[in-house]
Amino acid sequence: MPEEVPHFVQPEIQNNPFGWGPCEMPDQFKDMPYQPFSKGDRIGKISDWTGLSQDKKYLNKYQSQFGGGTQYTYYHEEDENTFHLVDTARVQKPPYQRGRHFRQGGRMMRGQGGRGGLSRLPGGSNQFQTLGKLNKLQRDRKNPNARRGWNKNQGGRSNKNNMQMKSRDASVTVRADWNTIEEMDFVRFSKLSLPNIKEPEDLVCCGSLEYYDKSYDRINVKNEKPLQRVDRLFHTVTTTDDPVIRKLVKTVGNVYATDTILACLMCCTRSNYSWDIVIEKVGDKLFFDKRDNTEFDLLTVNETAVEPPSEEANSLNSPRNLALEATFINHNFSQQVLKTGEQRYKFDEPNPFISDDETEGEVASVAYRYRKWDLDNGIVLVARCEHDSVLQVPNGDLQFLTIKALNEWDSKLSGGVDWRHKLDVQRGGVLATELRNNAGKLAKWTVQALLAGSDYIKFGYVSRVQVRDSSKHVILGTQQYKPTEFATQINLNMDNAWGILRCIIDLCMKQKDGKFLIMKDPNKPLIRLYDIPDNTFDSDNEENEDEESGEKSTIPEELLPPNP
User: Protein biosynthesis as a keyword (predicted)?
Assistant: First the structure.
């Protein structure tokens, strides 16, 4: 048999003039699925028997990380060909990629299994927790103080920028017939300055003061003293109802107010809650007044705290209930620390607000200084200021005091420190916390003491006997400062405070005669000046009298300028 001669078959060569590679898809590779891959890629599970249990949240751990296709990875799920779900939520990282906080939290949770057994959290969550710890976990989530620790264990996902702003109510409802004249934001106010204000001049001094009892300076946490109820009258008379100002307006000044109103305006940049002040312009004179039956004289509590008190009306710790409690404490403390029954220090003039049926012992110890400031450019301010007590020093000199009380209501909810543990050993830390939570209130107290010319401002630390009982309190300690030194400590710039007041006065002086209202916006750092009708906030009787007489102004007749 002849030997077959080998032969060479020339292969078909495909020429691709547009690039590199074959021009056509080979027949054996047509219609075959293909997924790009990498040799360093993780290999998916052949069969996932744990897909319905806790390990299901780790499915992505073994998926291919190269390319976008995952058709070769097997999942044991029900076939829902007729149902399509579109998920638009942001994809979270797998738990094992959430950092050390998650891993630490996981170890802590596994370590808490113990004897109590395991129980699923409500809502079908796959996290486990000890049965005995379940209720505590839910309480901690609702507790503002404990929430910090919860957020920290959750990897720090909570942020102050993510906190929802609580909408507050305005101190007065803005009516349709009110016209907005000006909006003044706090950023502009912070840049104002009016330096070199001259020392004030005393016009009238009246009232009587009881002497301070120095034994209260020795009170501490271990030697606490119950807060007593002192049944005395406190007069909070507004500017135009003051009989002394009615006399002074005829001869002195062209701007009139009280120390509380001035302090509110001068420290407005430190306030968060809404407030309002009525202004009446008559000729070239301005009268700053507060409205009747308002909460202007109530003391705010934790107004500037990171987490202010809850707005629940029925809560023991609602802002209004805490304000009533703080005002009650302040009144009683300022009278309890005095030497009652002894001879009082009396000024030349008697208390102008004592009626015929009231005696001196029924009225709180208070003295009034009517003082005059020259603010330049023809602006002369006359204001009524107050002292709470007087102290006689060893050399025989007298020192006038402003007495105020700081109150502790619930250190856990207020985000502060427990006074009974820290007041004696870290009093500076306690005061620093109060400066952070009550910056506006402390600044106003300091301004009032500076305006009155008090030598010292004394603070009392008063706490509840029981956290859930707002009717019983104890005094845990006292502390005193010179007003000028304390103003420096709390970063209170009086040049800026005078600048704010002067800016408001100049703006009101430019307006025509009438009634105006300044209101702090309840949710924004700004105040607004409204032009309001002359009969706004008048009582029915006053409105009827105005209609009969044809008068529109609520300023008393003796305060009006004489007719030409």
Answer: yes
Distance in angstroms (rounded) separating the CA atoms of residues 76 and 267: 66
Q: What is the pLDDT of residues 413-470, one digit of tens each?
A: 877 788 999 899 888 889 999 999 999 999 999 999 999 999 999 999 999 999 988 9
**pLDDT tens-digit profile of 351-395?**
999 888 787 778 999 999 999 999 999 999 999 999 999 999 888
* Cα–Cα distance for residue pair 552/564, rounded to 1 Å: 19
Looking at residue 560, its pLDDT comes to: 53
Phi-psi region of 95 (alpha: psi -120 to 50; beta: other; left: phi over 0): alpha
Cα dihedral 260, 265, 270, 271 sign: positive
Strand runs (DSSP E) across 66-135, as ranges? Answer: 118-120, 128-130
Q: What are phi and psi of 404, to 5 degrees?
A: -135, 160
Average confidence score pLDDT of the chain: 79
Domain boundaries, the chain: 99-157, 179-536
| DSSP H or E stretch at residue 506 | helix 494-509
- Rounded to the nearest 10°, the torsion over CA 170, 173, 174, 178 is -140
Q: Which of 397, 395, 371 is nearest to 455 (CA)?
A: 397
Taking Cα atoms as reference points, which of 282, 254, 257, 252 lies closest to residue 557? 282
CA distance 408 to 466: 11
Can you tell me whether residue 559 is helix, strand or coil?
helix
Q: What is the pLDDT of residues 441-456, one digit of tens each?
A: 999 999 999 999 999 9
CA distances from 501 to 249, 252, 309, 401 (A): 20, 19, 30, 25
Within a 10 A sphere around the Cβ of 39, how many other Cβ atoms? 5
* Maximum distance among all Cα pairs of the chain, rounded to whole angstroms: 153
Structure tokens at 301: 């509590």
Looking from the CA of 366 toward its CB, the CA atoms found within 13 Å total 18
Q: Say how far apart CA 52 and CA 75 lie, in whole Å.
A: 10
pTM above 0.85, yes or no: no
Structure confidence by residue, pLDDT tens digits, 29-50: 777 776 666 667 666 666 656 5
